[in-house]
Design brief:
The protein is built from nine helices and six strands, in the order H-E-H-E-H-E-H-E-H-H-E-H-E-H-H. The protein has a six-stranded parallel beta sheet. The chain is of the alpha/beta class. It is 32% helix and 13% strand.
């Protein structure tokens, strides 16, 4: 079976423009909105997350990519993560002003455990959804809550990750489509450790996220208030 890669240089759809000039239409005349979903704890959001979202937007010809910080991620039960308002705000400042990339608060705003299948149910039925996952996270799909319903609803776009080969992912998700992009060996866990140790991390995140982490004392030991010293954890999928 040949691997299905998406390629760079895909043309961007113009459904949003059509809608603006045809406000009487109930939906864009070019078809349903194509939405990419890139979820994770984003603690913090870093350059690899942003590059993956940008690549998916172009190669899958999406109308938008939503960065959705997890509210109470069930797969990280018992692991300290920063308060949702900090993680959401870091996403907002990271992508502010970038066309096609949007911060989405629906999981942070929801009480209780965060399940992808429940998040998908909040989108209109006629919206085409593309779930953007790291290759390592794609391998864990069989453990997800109601995974069959998830796969029935979305197209899976896979981000290459160091140490995870294509054939292993295809064995778990045969219908997956792979983004054509280089490997970026970067993790939020590693960034938190750098910050806690007082190490340099400026060029692993955007300037705005770097400033936010410093200004709010995130990931630094011994601070009062509700900032956390996050512990090593299973890394988010992207």
């Amino acid at each position: 079976m040949s691997t299905r890669y998406l390629r760079s240089g895909a043309g961007k759809r113009t459904s949003a423009v059509v809608s603006a000039f045809c406000p009487h239409l109930g939906s864009p005349i070019l078809g349903p909105v194509r939405t990419g979903i890139l979820g994770g704890t984003f603690d913090p959001i870093h350059i690899a997350h942003l590059h993956a979202g940008e690549v998916a937007l172009a190669q899958a010809e999406l109308d938008r990519v939503l960065f959705i910080p997890a509210g109470d991620p069930w797969q990280k039960e018992g692991v300290n993560i920063s308060p949702g308002r900090h993680r959401l705000q870091m996403v907002r400042v990271a992508i502010q002003g970038v066309p096609g990339l949007e911060a989405d608060s629906r999981e942070v705003d929801r009480d209780g455990p965060t399940y992808t299948v429940d998040t998908l149910a909040t989108f209109p039925d006629d919206e085409d959804l593309f779930l953007i996952l790291g290759a390592d996270a794609a391998l864990s799909l069989p453990t997800w809550h109601r995974v069959e319903d998830v796969l029935d609803r979305v197209t899976v776009l896979v981000i290459p990750r160091p140490g995870t080969n294509v054939s292993s992912v295809e064995a778990v998700v045969p219908q997956a489509r792979f983004l054509d992009m280089g490997l970026l060996d970067m993790s939020a866990t590693g960034i938190r450790r750098l910050v806690a140790a007082g190490g340099p991390f400026r060029y692993l995140v955007t300037d705005e996220v770097h400033r936010y982490i410093v200004d709010h004392g995130l990931y630094t030991k011994g601070l009062k208030g509700d900032t956390l010293q996050s512990q090593p954890e299973m890394e988010e999928s992207s």
